[in-house]
Design brief:
This is Plasmid stabilization system protein ParE. This protein has 106 residues and is mainly α. It has a domain of 71 residues. Helix 1 packs across helix 2. The longest helix has 24 residues. The protein is elongated.
């Protein structure tokens, strides 16, 4: 089987890769690079193609790439100055208050 052959991947794995690539492209990553990263993520999650003859068949992977968000979460906001975070919090509180008032007026 030639390198890059996707015949051992299931339809679900292909959909997953398409969805991941679309997300990368929306963030400005070039199409070829987005596709490369997407398949690398599918391989990391599923251990390769899951059709018969694929190395990942029959094993539960736990979706390791999907857990990365927990590590990354809050990192960028923590780097912002306290004043900026406080301003965001005040703005959010005002929005919530405004939305709550709009719901009760009806």
């Amino acid at each position: 089987m030639p390198r890059g052959d996707k015949s051992k991947y299931t339809d679900k794995q292909e959909r997953k890769a398409d969805h991941i690539a679309t997300g990368y492209e929306a963030r400005g990553v070039p199409e070829k690079e987005a596709e490369r990263r997407a398949w690398a993520t599918v391989n990391k999650d599923d251990g390769g193609g899951n059709k018969p003859g694929g190395s990942g068949r029959g094993t539960s992977t736990g979706h390791p790439a999907a857990h990365k968000g927990g590590e990354k979460g809050g990192q960028s906001s923590a780097e912002r100055p306290a004043e900026a975070r406080s301003a965001s919090a005040r703005k959010a509180a005002a929005t919530r208050k405004r939305n709550a008032e709009a719901r009760t007026v009806h």
